[in-house]
Amino acid sequence: MSRGRWDGYRPREASQKHLEWLRTQGVGLRAVSAATDIPRTTLARIVKGAHPWVRGSTEQKILAVTPDVRGDWTLVDAGPTWERIAWLLEEGFTRGELARLLGSKTPALQLGRKKVRAATAARVERLFRKYQH
């Protein structure tokens, strides 16, 4: 019941699939819980298939979550970030300049080849957009 109103039950599959998709996008149960106020244990039970049904309001909250809720420390695919860096290097920036512009205290551009932090990817994206013609 949601504030005294019964909103019924729905099969868990849509919520379960959405949570699994969010995980592939770098959004964990902790971030979903923070965004929806649904306890992590409830989300974990949905993912594991422990219950065949979820409340309608719970399903609506879960399905409304987008990858935008991932935390700054979430690791994301580094491919797009390295594409942006390659473009910036072709435009004449040095690796040291890019490191400084991205907030590094050293002149070394130190990024993972497969994964980077979401915050780093966002900083590179902002820098790319700033200098893109």
Description:
By secondary structure, this protein is mainly α. It folds into two domains: 9-69; 75-131. Helices cover 53% and strands 9% of the residues. Helix 1 crosses helix 3, helix 1 packs parallel to helix 4 (56-63) and helix 5 (79-90) packs parallel to helix 7. The radius of gyration is 20 Å and the shape is elongated. The N and C termini lie far apart (53 Å).
Features of this protein?
133 residues, two-stranded antiparallel sheet, 7 helices, 53% helix, elongated
Gyration radius (Cα, Å) is 20 Å
Number of domains: 2
CA distance, first residue to last residue: 53 Å
Q: Tell me the strand percentage band.
A: 5-15%
Percentage of residues assigned to helices: 40-55%
Tally of helical runs: 7
Q: Would you report the number of β strands?
A: 4
Mean pLDDT: 91
Poorly predicted parts: none
Q: Order of strands in the sheet with the most strands?
A: 1-2
Instruction: Name the structural class.
Output: mainly alpha
Major beta-sheet overview: 2 strands, antiparallel
Shape: elongated
Order of helices and strands: EHHHEHEHHEH
SSE map:
Layout: E1 9-11, H1 13-24, H2 29-36, H3 40-48, E2 53-55, H4 56-63, E3 75-77, H5 79-90, H6 95-101, E4 115-117, H7 118-131
Antiparallel strand pairs: 1-2, 3-4
Helix pairs in contact: 1-3, 1-4, 5-7
Summary of the model, kept short:
It contains seven helices and four strands. The protein is mainly alpha-helical and 133 residues long. Helix 5 (79-90) runs parallel beside helix 7.
